[in-house]
Structure formats: C-alpha cells, structure tokens
Design brief:
Elements lengths: L17 H30 L5 H25 L7 H35 L1 H17 L9
Length: 146
C-alpha cells in the first residue's frame, strides 16, 4: 500500500475586489458630503445670519446631507443594502417611528414651555418677585449720592 498525500492547495487571490472598490467609492462620497456640510456650517457660523429663510435653508441642506451620509453608512458598511426588502423594512419602519417620536416629544415640550410661560400666573408672578428681590438686593454703587 502506498500512501500519497494528494491534498489540493487552496489559493486565494488577494487583489482588490469589487466590494473594495465599492467601499472606496462610498468613502470618497462620504468625504465630499462631510466637507460640504462643514463648509456650510462654518459659513452659517461665520456670516452670523439673522433668523430667516437663508439660515433655515442652509440648516435644511445640512440635514438632507446628513441623511444621505446615514443612508450610505447603513447601506454599505452595515450591509443593509444587500438584504432583502422585508429585512430592510423591519429596521427602517421602527427607526422612522422612533424619529417621529423624538420630533413629537420635542414639539410637545416646546409647546408646553411656551404655554406655561404665557398662561401660568404663578409662574409669571414668581418671575416678577425674583426680579424685584434681585433689584432690592443689589448693593449701592460706590460714590452714589442718596
């Protein structure tokens, strides 16, 4: 009996594959989006724009660019873009509801704060009393005549 070792060697080509090219493409897209976001943010900060249409437009563009970055990150780096539609929906629908809850709670909290300041007499009176007390408690300035 002759024993021969006839195991086949498995070799893997380590050259750049299509997925590596895809990752680099997404990297450059994310880099460009980030640079545009930062330049818009610095422009918004340096110009000191008044509250108005331009400022809200710039903020809206920054939000849209952030959502585009989130899409690319989730799609490529978290491999959700390769999944079937039902799997994607099990992640996207609860996420959308969660974002809606956050927006609803922020809006409701702002509304409560605004209404409390407007209609709560005790809150207003308490604020008036605090200002009266702080005016009375201030020390006299040096050299002031009585």
């Amino acid at each position: 009996m002759e024993h021969t070792n006839s195991s086949a060697e498995v070799t893997i080509d380590h050259g750049p594959s299509d997925s590596t090219k895809r990752i680099w493409k997404v990297f450059w897209i994310l880099l460009i989006i980030t640079v545009v976001e930062l330049s818009l943010g610095l422009t918004l900060y340096s110009l000191d724009l008044p509250e108005g249409l331009r400022m809200h437009l710039i903020k809206g563009v920054i939000i849209v660019l952030s959502l585009a970055k989130a899409y690319y990150i989730v799609s490529v780096f978290m491999h959700l873009g390769d999944e079937i539609r039902n799997m994607i929906m099990t992640i996207v629908v609860p996420l959308t509801l969660f974002i809606w809850f956050i927006i609803a709670f922020i809006y409701d909290g702002h509304s409560y704060n605004t209404l409390r300041n407007k209609y709560d007499r005790y809150y207003k009176e308490q604020g008036v009393e605090k200002t009266k007390l702080s005016r009375e408690a201030k020390p006299e300035k040096f050299g002031a005549k009585e």
